[in-house]
Sequence to fold (638 residues):
Amino acid sequence: MTSDSSNPQPHSDTSLLPGLQSPDDVKVLDDEQLEQLAVEIRDTLIRTLARTGGHLGPNLGVVELTIALHKVFNTPVDRFVMDVSHQGYVHKMLTGRAGQIDSIRQYEGLNGFLLRTESDHDCYGAGHAGTALSAALGMAAARDLKGDDEHVVAIAGDAAFTCGPTLEALNNIAETTKRFIVVLNDNEWSIDKNVGAIAKYFNALQTNKAYSDVRQKAAEFVERVGGQGVRRLAKKIERSAKNLLFPNVLFEKFGVRYFGPIDGHNLPLLVRTFEYLKEQEEPVILHIITEKGRGYRPALEKPGKFHGLGPYNVVDGSTSSGGNPTYSEVFGRTVTNLAKEDEKIVAVTAAMPGGTKLEIFKEEIPARYFDVGIAEEHAALFACGLATQGLKPFLAIYSTFMQRAYDMIIHDMALQGLPVRLCMDRGGLSGDDGPTHHGLFDIGYLRHIPNIVHMQPVDEDEFADMLWTMAQYEEGPIAVRYPRGVGTGAQPKESPRLLEIGKGELIKDGNDVALIGLGFVHDLAVEAAEELEKQGHSVALVNPRFIKPLDEELILEVAKRCKVICTFEDHVLKNGFGASVIELLHDAGINTPVERVGWPDEFVEHGKVDILREKHGITAESALEKILPYLPTKAATA
Fold:
């Protein structure tokens, strides 16, 4: 398969993309114009995302696929359900949103994923893997019940087939509907290189020359001769070859007829194939081979980096360094260093070695590194098994993805008291990625579980202390949440210190107001404290460290002498950290009022963190507005 890796070129006066207002405009284009449209879309994506950031590689890989789908099918009547949907930029451009593509992932602009409220052409929203087949199958079943005849097409990457829900849906397709199309977009990557037996199976299918030759010759024979009898004979030959070469063909064992693999960048072939598949009265799966990052050399050379990234130099794909290491980088380096000193430490991730920076561990201690694919439930149970044998598993999963393993955290970790170390990256707002990726719920879904410890550091140095503490903790599951991106720049000590479980830190004592700033937003508490002191108020400043167990002694002590408490958290207020402080004071019979700064009871939109904090009142100014009515007016200090 060849690749066009030339630099993007400016559009000519005869550009097609600016004139596309709906998929109907795609249907009137001939083969040559469709190829031109593919070039224009790639050029636009490369230039636009260089300014905005976004999921470049996945979208460059599905340009021809998306054009072919809209050439053959008719959305919004027909339905395209895209797994994860981060590869939906091209779909957006072909459904009337090409003129807005430069707003992708920007505040009040296009969402980086499909969104039902954004367009009628987006029939299903998603940001997590493994959802497409089940949701699409539900749509097909509803169509059948209503007696309608629209087409339902599920588009999923090969990595999605390591997900439990995808395999569960496969198990139900043949018994649920007779008309259903699945497109398996096989590029050997999710965010990082795919792993596991299924990934190897797909690779065997696409690289077996004998199988490919049989399929090609059968197709050529049909094209030359034609006729139903010949088609039946070709299919029989193909099936015989397949049974000889692959006696346990995965999909047809599930009752889904398999086609492919075919070149996912051959537009005429894709169009002809979809025109054929839409006439089939049986569930089918089309296996296409694509290149993630096609058409842009830097994305082809570094598909992991260009899966999703911030702004970059369009000429060479380079990105500017953030200076200080990110929390993820501190995590990867610290856990790797700890593991060099403790042979019981193992690292587990669910297809995210790059995002979690466990790639550092993988490189330096490969024998104790495990990537289980996009299978968070399995990852959690696998870690439990490791823990039963005396090992110390560090399970690194984004906060938003850890939601998928909730049952395992309760039923397997906490109930059995297994010391699994939950390392919850992106704990807090995830900015441009939006509501599917914000880590705003983990305090709420963990703090009511018995036998669990949950922490959040104020800076990178304390983060290293917490990771060291986790390595020594053996009494049950222990979790740490930490934000996306860089922190304060505090360098971890050469030797981290052991923290006492459930003990916070009184940074500054005072008698008028107590400010309790959890983790990443502790800086807001510091800012509010400085302003209050300027106004003559005595401020107690607390770093709680522990979400569960709370440092009850410290919090009750400051509550008894202060007129008001204000908590700060990068989490929704409902069932969050501040709520736990309110419960503590209520149970102790202390009536000190508690004001809270945190996220509202809604799914927060996408946008830059500073913009969203200002909009939703996650600021020191907002805290002062809540606090000052409880305090007497005092003369400001010099």
Remarks:
- The first strand starts at residue 79 and ends at 82.
- The chain has a mean pLDDT of 89.
- The chain has three domains: 17-208+246-307, 327-481, 505-630.
- Residues 31-52 form the longest helix (22 residues).
